Amino acid sequence: MTLSTSKNGSAVTETYINDALQADLSTLVESALAQAKSRGASSAEAAAHASRGFSVTVRLGDVETIEHNRDKSLGITVFFGDHSGSASTSDFSPQAVRDTVQAACSIARYTAEDPFGGLADKEQMATRILDLDLHHPWDLTVPQAIEVAQSCEQVARDSDKRIINSEGATLSSHEGIEVYANSHGFLAGQRSSRHSLGCAVVGQDDRGMQRDQWYSVARRAQDLDLAETVGAQAAQRTLRRLDARQLSTRKAPVVFEAPIASSVLGHLGAAIQGSNLYRKASFLVDHQGKQLFAPHVQIHENPHICRGLGSSAYDNEGVTTHPRDLVTDGILQGYLLDSYSARKLGLQSTGNAGGVHNMIIKPGEDNLSGLLAAMGTGLLITELIGFGVNILTGDYSRGAAGFWVENGEIQHPVDEITVAGKLQDMFQGIIKVGQDVDIRKNIRTGSLLIDNLTIAGS
Amino acid sequence: MLEQVKQSLLEPAGIGDSELDRLIGQLYGPAMDYADLYFQYSRHEAWSLEEGQVKSGSHSIDQGVGARAVMGEKSGFAYSDELQIPALLDAARAARAIAQSGDGKQAAMVWQGVKAPALYSSLDPLASLKDDDKIALLEQVEAEARAQDTRVKEVMANVAASFEQILVVRSDGVLAADIRPLVRLNVTVIVEQNGRREQGHAGGGGRCGYDYFLDSDKALGYAREAVRQALVNLEADEPPAGSMTVVLGPGWPGILLHEAIGHGLEGDFNRKGTSAFSGRMGEKVASDQCTVVDDGTLKDRRGSLTIDDEGTPAQRTVLIENGILTAYMQDNMNARLMNVPPTGNGRRESYAHLPMPRMTNTFMIAGQYDPQEIIASVDKGLYAVNFGGGQVDITSGKFVFSASEAYLIEHGKVTRPVKGATLIGNGPDVLTRVAMVGNDLELDSGVGTCGKEGQSVPVGVGQPTLRIDGLTVGGTQVGD
Predict the structure, then answer these.
(1) Which of A29, B151, B418, B427 fits B239 for a cystine, CB–CB 3.0-4.6 Å?
(2) Residue A261 and residue A432 in contact, taking contact as beta carbons nearer than 8 Å
(3) DSSP assignment, residue B153?
């Protein structure tokens, strides 16, 4: 097992996530597995997690909240032949661990036989744990964090007199460790850190108030955007929404701006997820090998990006992860499977127990203004609200806000509209992918130009 | 109840009244307005069925203490999942750093309880039914769903229960305890006809034991309802797009109130002036027919609380009376800062989260119209009777909620079903367009979970049938 260590000096000695903690958590999960075995379980898996951190929020220049976080949990799943049970606890005392193992075993007495259950296949266990450089604790004190958040919010508030109020700026810094073991003999720990800085402000004009926000997030503090940049973005995004009005109902091409375009690919992820496939609860059942997108669309999963927010050397069942193609020339290459759904479908786990690890759509040549020029007249969507997405049928209908565009130029902000269509058509209708990739999420995409959606308004 | 909760939360950790004095002394200082400790123990279980079998079950235990110090608009917060004095003293010290004061001296408190009538049983719902019988219940639900129609292809059902004990220890000497049961059962079915697949959902629950689902056939009723909805959706056409008259059915469509006005009337946003309703107290924000309340005192309801998470007894708060905005929902901090009494709306997801103003059961009082009369009054519009989730932008006031079962109204009659679509409107404006309020007030079946700033809490909604003149329907069919 490989461990990453901090590269920024003094934090190494300060860090809570260290070898001693990892050893303790390893002992804990091994003890849980041993207890399961002694209770007669034929196999078992256990995961322990611990994390620590803090966040500060500054509003109107003054501290609003200081929150210290400190969490831990232990979860165990036991198998008695084809019967399984799960239990978890936040209490690591020997008595609580015993009770938790017992609770899992007791549940397994009642659950039905399920020949598709059990641990992931032994041959798929990760044998070499890659160091993905995910753990960079930040030796930041609370007063320093307050200063950063203050300067961030100050820039936003000072940027324009129409910024009349603020929801504040928040800086948070957390580190954690997850140790996973199963009765194949697999035992590994992954350490990680996550730091973020965000700001939300309120603007006002004759038509009323609007708010918007911006944030930066990274594994490593030095990769965060400057406080001033985050504040300026938050203000600029709020100001541009002022004077928004409804559109009349129409059909038009749309551009999903990169920060929200990831949601469209998120729906792809849900539709090719194993649990939705074996239940036939997805519009993409039996679509492997089919043309879902135009031939220019390439989608890749890369779990091994150094410091990536979705990076992981192995999945929640210990299965090794691999970089792979999900969509090649518009054709769906594979699904997102854990061991259970893979067995149900007669396939092999793809290392996606717990989800996708960095889904990336290959960026195109154009920046956002290039996409707007290619669209000509249509809607630039910058915010989506609500649910209204049906993965079974592909029906799509969400609340939206953004900008009306004519001849490639933004005309005015719009809100109180919906955009609707079918995900099948939206995927086929992706005309261009922007080069303006947003790397703040597990799904990385540039803005997306889609040929046609129904816009409902006045 | 206070003694029972003290015994189960504090005694095992060796915490008596003098240790509480010491903890509050560590947390609270003269520069502060308020401080509290929130002790919580919770157990949760879930059983789920698919493909005819209960294949998985889970059980979890969580416990801990949150320590909060409040000074003006500032809150310092830390928590511990170890119920041991040294860990709690650490949390108290970390939280009080916000005030940069406090001397850590022993306080000499005179502890006093809170009188509030219990609104639900203090039984442990996990133990209210044998495990065998929980499984049998899910199997019966499955069988009932499949017996409805041969087009039923998949049935997924799950049942869950949680049992919570909480103790609030306040710097003003108040000690308040609550024991909160909660159960929930959900059914999803997928039906298929000529290659087309559609789904339906139903469920319910409340602050009671599992026997709730056995009473008057409730669980089997959810199974039948889920199948009915799914079959309706098999026949549904593409939904219309644009602004039109919308009639909302009674009960769960009250999610309208939760999104359109409920969040906007929470005290924190209004104290900060970031809500579209800020500064509008006493103004007309709805048609005369609209009276909307938030009521945490309804017996056994999912959104009810004997006391809130700050020890304030739940109450009925009239938010809008005959169209006039009359109150915001408050927790202790925002009430103090706005110089109004708290309303029993201080809630938190757990000990690891800060409390804030949240809704309980939010609904509109019944009006005078027969629901049939309301439908008959519409020449052309949408009749929406079931919904998924919703969301609101507090500042602009724009809100959405997504229909999952809807029909066209043509010439005063409900005609064809149409597929679900998202409805969007403007919160401060939408209730002014309520033209008719039905006499058929219903509360939802106990399925709501509200999310705010990353915290989830159980809530209820309700309303009578409503006619709204002009709401934007987000379908795909651009009309004539």
Answers:
(1) B418
(2) no
(3) E
- For A171, the domain range is 19-239
Same domain, A235 and A264: no
Residues A190 and A296 in one domain: no
* B271-287 core/surface letters (b: 16 or more CB in 10 A; e: else): bbebbbbbebbeeebbb
Report H helices in B380-443: 427-430
Q: Tell me the residue type at B261.
A: I
Interface contact B422-A86, CB threshold 8 A: no
Closest chain A C-alpha to B3 CA, distance in angstroms? 24
Q: What are the tens digits of pLDDT across the range B215-259? A: 878 999 999 999 999 999 999 999 999 999 999 999 999 999 999
Token pair, residue A372, equals: 């707007």
Are A111 and B479 a contacting pair at CB < 8 A? Answer: no
Q: Tens digits of per-residue pLDDT, B31-60? A: 899 999 999 999 999 999 999 999 999 999
- Most A CBs within 10 Å: which of B235, B331, B472, as the mutation test of the A interface? B472
Instruction: Name the residue of chain B whose CA is nearest to A74's CA.
Output: B60
Last residue within a domain, chosen from A189, A221, A239: A239
> Letter for the amino acid at B27?
L
Distance of alpha carbon B401 from alpha carbon B399, whole angstroms: 7
Residues A369 and A225 occupy one common structural domain: no
Residues of A within 8 A of B273 (CB-CB) are 165
CA nearest neighbour of A328 among A358, A297, A374, A353: A297
Q: How far is residue A314's CA from residue A293's CA, in Å, rounded to a whole number? A: 29
Contact B420 A395 (CB under 8 A): yes
The residue type at A311: S
- Do residues A305 and A448 share a domain? yes
Give A83 to chain B, closest Cα distance, Å: 7
Let me know if residue A199 belongs to a domain.
Answer: yes
- Chain A and chain B share a number of CB contacts under 8 A equal to 250
Min Cα distance A407 → chain B (Å) is: 23
Name the residue in chain B with its Cα closest to that of A97: B61
Q: Which of A223, A239, A255 is the last residue of a domain?
A: A239
Tokens 């999803």 found at: B188
For residue B198, the SS3 value is strand
Residue A168's domain is classified under what CATH number? Answer: 3.30.2290.10
Is B61 close to A90, i.e. CB distance below 8 A?
A: yes
ipTM for the complex shown: 0.95
**What pTM was computed for the model?**
0.95
SS3 of residue B331 by DSSP: coil
